[in-house]
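thread: overnight batch results

M.L. [08:02]
morning all. the overnight job finished for the chain we discussed friday. pasting input first so we're all looking at the same thing
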Amino acid sequence: MAPHSSAIPEHVHAAILAAGWSGIVLPETKVSDCVVYPVIDVDPAVWAERLAKQQGPELDWSTLAIWEAWTDDLGE
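M.L. [08:03]
and the structure it wrote out:
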């Protein structure tokens, strides 16, 4: 179950639970002109690599679409 904070509206929390998503619910943000509440699951190795390369979060729609479709056989 995703942690719940007062910054997350109850209807958003209920939808996350209904979907069965786990992870951390982030506060409202805008991604490609859509207001969303991201639910993330941090991979510590990837997080450390991104910090080492001074890379911030990716919120661009086309980047996220590629990221979600990427498979290991496509390389790094």
